[in-house]
Amino acid sequence: MSRCWLGRLVLLVLVWGGSAAMVQADPFPSKPIHLVVGYAAGGSTDVVARIVGQQLSEVLGQPVVIENRPGAGGSIASAQVARSAPDGHTIFMSTIANTINTSLYPKLPFDFATDLAPISLVATVPNVLVVNPQVPAANLKEFIALAKSKPGQINFASSGAGSSIHLSGELFNMVAQVQLVHVPYKGSAPAVVDLISGQVQSMFDNLSSSLPYIKAGKLRALAVTSAHRSAAAPDIPTMAEAGLPGCEVTSWFALVAPAKTPQAIVARLNAELGRILAEPRVKARLAELGADAAPSTPEELAELIASETKKWAGVIKASGASIE
Amino acid sequence: MEQALADLLYGFGVALQPANLMWVVIGVVLGNLIGVLPGLGAMTTISMLLPLTYVIPAVPAILMLAGIFYGSMYGGAICAILLNLPSHPPHAVTCIDGYPMTLNGRGGAALGVTMMASFFAASVGIMLMVFVSPLLEAVAFKFGPTEISAVMLLGLLAGSTMARGSPLKGIAMTLFGLFLGSVGTDVSSGIQRYTFGLPDLADGVDLAALSLGLFGIADFLLTVDRREVSTTTTRITMRQMMPTRAELKRSILPMLRGTGVGAIFGAMPGTGPTITTFVAYALERKISKSPDRFGKGAIEGVTAPEAAAHSKTQIDFIPTMSLGIPGDPVMALLLGALIIKGVNTGPQLITEHPDVFWGLVASFWIGNLLLIVLNVPLIGIWVRLLRIPYRFLFPSALFFIAIGVYSTHNNVFDILLVAVFGCVGAIFLLLEFPVAPVVLGFVLGPMLEENFRRAMVLSRGDLMIYLERPISATFIVLCLALVLLQFYSYLRVPPSPRPARAMH
Questions:
Q1: pLDDT: which is higher, A203 or B186
Q2: Tens-place pLDDT, residues A120-141
Q3: Cα–Cα nearest to A143, from A172, A185, A182
Q4: How far is A49 from chain B (nearest CA, A)?
Q5: How distant is the Cα of B408 from the closest Cα of chain A, in angstroms?
Q6: Residue B339: which of A47, A109, A161 has the nearest Cβ?
Q7: Of A62, A129, A243, B451, which cross-links A29 as Cys (Cβ 3.0–4.6 Å)?
Q8: In angstroms, what CA-CA distances link B480 with B144, B447, B474?
Q9: Into how many domains does chain B fold?
Q10: Is the model's pLDDT at B87 over the cut of 90?
Q11: CB B347 to CB A162 under 8 A?
């Protein structure tokens, strides 16, 4: 009996050793990949990460574990990833908030642009200017005229000071030369409640979270803030089409890795991601969220991060939204 | 009405399909177990199990995940009553009277009454969900920042009289809670307050870490070398586990009132379950003919908050499912799970996916029935927890607390927080400062501040808005009445010598 067990043990060791040797032949990925998300499970960043993570684990042959590290607008998670081993087994689903935080919090213990290596843009989500249906403005021009006739009397809700939703409103104030008053909430859900009930009149919400209410007629969409109309809601005009050029904001999700991650691994992940995001099935899942699949090269993502960081620094400075 | 019944029957048809039923069972059993473990909440469990739902259809997935949520509510009271360990923050208030009941040998009875109140309150919540959800939706939209801040003010006033002993100490502890609540990023300006530059504090102190530290760890620290004899020799008989007739009689009205409180708070999305249980407790103490018994093992102080927690839990599903607006992070996670499954949430969920909505409602009843069938026989086993020698019980409880608290944010910092609050709480207990008002101030303060400032932004700084809006005016009048009543009773009754604390 004991001999039999010994035999099995030897066999087990051999098999295990053999598979270990095989893994060594193909160095990446050699263990489960941690995809870190800076927000709680169930939020839009988390859902995008899970859709992509599920596909990635199929093509990479290793489980992709979603690790939620919520806090400080994604800064805690990005700091953790910046400190992680640069071997491709820890990657981060960054968002537009990471480029805003650079200017909002000057004392962050890392630099998002240099401590993290871009892999690929994943998806973009336009913000949409929605108003309570009782607001007497059927389109963007009427809304701007209304805001100009009542300076400082119309409110816009946001998911928090310094969020892309807040800064879209500040940008709108600058470009349209109006004075909407900012009313911050703790997250998007309570803001939408007060918008539907008419406590506040307008909001530059992420299209994904407002779309169901627009479809149900509980909110009126005036314009999306992206350069092109969204595939998820093709009948909503862009800001430029509706008569206000220069007010462009697109929320985005992008995969990044610790800065010193080898070029080959970044290239591999970028290639896999490009294939995944081209699949009609994945595109459809993202469209349900109001997001457009948007694969890119690492260089394009680096440019986007640089230009966004610069843009938000300007808006924050001009609007006085800076935070010590 | 008839339509609702037909829909409900259809829902039972969905929920009773063998595969769906199996997932309900898995969900509630798992939730119940998770609920017992301190700190390891529904939030963590559901996010860990999300990948599992990738492979099953949407209906069983949501039935299971929801089962974990309300199942964990049943388990949460167990450690609060038996070990003074609030496994989840809403049950912190249950410790105040539940734990003294255990020390008096009535722990089993407390658990029995809790289970009954839970089932009753959950059933009421489900019925409200079936028959009056449009009404509750309308109520939800009536509560803007002005109304919510008025309710919070009432809660704070009612709750600050909750502590036994010196009123001054109670107020000091409430203020300490308010101060702790101000740690973190200010919602209105985005400025960080009292974070000492630590990003880990940017979102404030974690409620679970605070309540586990102040109640559980603090009590452990003080009793670790003293309790061995009294617990291991406790013999548990069947008689001790059953609530007496008098206990049952005293529980019925608190159960009804607690259910009502839970229903009201359930209609206000965004108010967490913790506030609900504290307000239910405060109300019970306020209207009691013998408020002296509270804190020494009054069964009303266990029944009311537990009933409130359960009706709130069920009613919270109304805005989540019918509008797609989550009332708390767990609800947001459940909606996220539906979105991952490709089910669009939002106002059209009920019409587009009746199987999801009505199946879920029917599964609530099945799940709650299962939970009560499961839990009543288990009470005897849970009570036996007390017979585990403390040298084993303490380290294991500490171990689970550390894991549970860590898993909420995957952050070691929260474990340090528990340790710090454990030490702080032990000092408070030694000096006979009550710790419950800290938790109350901590949960109410930030909501009061946030909504008050928002109301002021909306009214452009005009305080009269509180009297112009009927709902908030009602609450403000109640606040005034409460303050006047306090003065009146203070003037009428000569200050009596302070009763000695029964515990510690």
A1: A203
A2: 999 999 999 999 999 999 999 9
A3: A172
A4: 10
A5: 9
A6: A47
A7: A62
A8: 21, 20, 10
A9: 1
A10: no
A11: no
- A183–B457 C-beta distance less than 8 A: yes
Q: What is the DSSP string of A128-154?
A: EEEE-TTSS-SSHHHHHHHHHHSTTT-
Q: Between chains, do B325 and A289 touch, taking CB under 8 Å as contact?
A: no
Determine phi and psi for B343, rounding to 5 degrees. -95, 120
- Is the residue at B58 inside a domain? yes
Write out the residue range of the structural domain in which residue B282 sits.
Answer: 2-494
List b or e across A49-66, with b for residues whose CB sees 16 or more CB atoms inside 10 angstroms. Answer: bbbbbbbbbeebebebeb
Q: What's the rounded Cα separation, in Å, for the pair B219 and A220? A: 54
Most confident of A26-35, B92-101, B389-398: B92-101
User: Is B348 in Cβ contact with A185 (below 8 Å)?
Assistant: no
Measured between beta carbons, which residues in chain B are less than 8 angstroms from residue A75? Answer: 199, 202
**ipTM higher than the 0.85 cut:** no
Q: Can you list the alpha helix ranges (DSSP code H) found in chain A? A: 2-25, 44-60, 75-83, 96-104, 112-115, 140-149, 164-176, 188-196, 207-215, 263-278, 280-288, 298-319
- Asked if A82 and A116 count as a contact pair (C-beta separation under 8 A), the reply is yes
Rounded Cα–Cα distance for residues B308 and B312 (Å): 6
User: Hey, of A37, A45, A46, A316, which one would you mutate to test binding to chain B, going by the most B CBs within 10 A of its CB?
Assistant: A46
- Chain B's closest residue to A192, CA to CA, is B325
Q: Do A155 and B458 touch (CB under 8 A)?
A: yes
Are A197 and B450 within 8 A, CB to CB?
Answer: no
How far B335 CA lies from chain A's nearest CA (Å)?
7
pLDDT in tens, B39-83: 777 888 888 888 888 888 999 999 999 999 999 988 889 989 988
- B289 belongs to a structural domain: yes
The first and second tokens of residue B82, run together, are: 């038996």
Window 252-311 of A, Cβ < 8 Å to B: 285, 288-289
Has residue B225 got a pLDDT over 80? no
| Closest CA relative to residue A164, chosen from A192, A194, A184 | A184
Residue B171 — very low, low, confident or very high, per pLDDT cuts 50/70/90?
A: confident
Residue B93's closest CA among B263, B280, B271, B240? B280
In a domain, B500, yes or no: no
Query: Are B340 and A289 within 8 A, CB to CB?
Result: no
On whether residue B502 sits in a domain, the answer given is no
CB contact under 8 A, B269 and A104: no
**Residue B236 burial class via C-beta count within 10 angstroms: exposed 0-12, middle 13-18, buried 19 and up:** middle
Q: Do A162 and B334 touch (CB under 8 A)?
A: no
**Facing residues of A250 across strands?**
A126
Are the beta carbons of B190 and A192 separated by less than 8 Å?
Answer: no
* A26 Cα to chain B: minimum distance (Å): 26
Instruction: State the 10-residue block means of pLDDT for chain A, 324 residues long.
Output: 52 49 62 92 89 93 90 87 93 95 84 94 95 96 96 93 91 94 89 92 92 92 93 92 93 95 95 95 88 94 95 86 50
Query: What pLDDT sits at residue B285?
Result: 87
Q: Do B93 and B305 meet the contact criterion of CB atoms below 8 Å apart?
A: yes
CA–CA gap between residue B370 and residue B68 (Å, rounded): 13
Read off the amino acid at residue B152: M
Q: Which residues pair with B412 in a beta bridge?
A: none
Chain A residue whose CA is closest to B325: A189
